[in-house]
């Protein structure tokens, strides 16, 4: 009898990926459907399966952009958007036998939607901006690194911030809104001032540090013995002038705005 036909190499390799399992909290799990979130196989399979969708949208003359399974289609009116959404959903379900996530699908203005962390301004000549959700996530990460509950030296915090933020700006430098990066720089410095104020702890230590930074003795005693909260003190004139941009540059804190302009020039 003839031997059974061997499975194509590509199919076998994909099958091994799908059946390899994932590790969650040190425990290996074997999923019965889908691909692991964030895995390299997911966008590859999306491009293979959704290539037919790309060709269908091109045939219809639609303007669209797709990355993996995330796709935006641009039309002129809301009515046209509802019609296209319905017909494309039917095509995906009927022809490709795939499910459409209705919770994440919508017909809306481009500046009210996001794509890969970006959105648009609502100007007559729209510009690329960072989506609100992306800004919320980066701020949450900065809060974690600059949390007062982490008793680590300021140098370590800045090293951790530099590593994270330089990678982040490397992706989001595509945005046309430099003021966002300038505002984030200022916010990061305020977070670091708060950490330093907590690190100095005792009033006499705060007074000593302020005097060393050139604050007049009266002001140093006034602010060093203040009972205002850490976050409020971090925006005070005395800390804003002494723990300024040049102070943190001496600790090698990198600027998002500076890196943004450097990347835009290349």
From TrEMBL:
Domain Reverse transcriptase: from-to ranges: 1-120
Gene Ontology molecular function, alphabetical: RNA-directed DNA polymerase activity
Signal peptide limits: none
TM segment ranges: none
Record SUPFAM superfamilies: DNA/RNA polymerases
Pfam families given in the database record: GIIM, RVT_1
InterPro entries found in the cross-reference section: DNA/RNA_pol_sf, GrpII_Intron_Splice-Mob/Def, Mat_intron_G2, RT_dom
Record's keyword terms, sorted: Nucleotidyltransferase, RNA-directed DNA polymerase, Transferase
PROSITE patterns per record: RT_POL
Listed PANTHER family: NUCLEAR INTRON MATURASE 1, MITOCHONDRIAL-RELATED, PROTEIN YKFC
Protein name per the record: Group II intron reverse transcriptase/maturase
Organism (species): Aneurinibacillus thermoaerophilus
């Amino acid at each position: 009898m003839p031997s059974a036909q061997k499975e194509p190499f590509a199919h076998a390799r994909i099958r091994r990926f799908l059946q390899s399992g994932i590790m969650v909290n040190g425990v290996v799990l074997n999923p019965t459907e889908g691909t692991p979130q964030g895995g390299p196989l997911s966008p590859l399979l999306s491009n293979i399966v959704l290539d037919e969708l790309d060709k269908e949208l091109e045939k219809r003359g639609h303007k669209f952009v797709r990355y993996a399974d995330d796709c935006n289609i641009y039309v002129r009116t809301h009515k046209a958007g509802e019609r296209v959404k319905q017909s494309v959903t039917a095509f995906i379900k009927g022809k490709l036998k795939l499910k459409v996530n209705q919770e994440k699908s919508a017909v809306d203005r481009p500046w009210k939607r996001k794509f890969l962390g970006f959105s648009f301004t609502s100007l007559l000549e729209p510009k690329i901006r960072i989506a609100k959700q992306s800004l919320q996530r980066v701020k949450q990460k900065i809060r974690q690194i600059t949390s007062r509950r982490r008793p680590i030296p300021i140098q370590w915090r800045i090293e951790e911030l530099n590593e994270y933020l330089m990678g982040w700006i490397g992706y989001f430098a595509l945005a046309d809104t430099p003021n966002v990066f300038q505002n984030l720089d200022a916010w990061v410095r305020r977070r670091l001032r708060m950490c330093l104020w907590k690190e100095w702890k005792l009033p006499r230590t705060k007074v000593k540090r302020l005097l060393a930074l050139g604050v007049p003795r009266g002001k140093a005693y006034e602010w060093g013995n203040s009972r205002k909260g850490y976050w409020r003190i971090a925006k005070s004139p005395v800390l804003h002038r002494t723990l300024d941009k040049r102070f943190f540059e001496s600790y090698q804190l990198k600027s998002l705005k500076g890196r943004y302009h450097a990347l835009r020039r290349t």
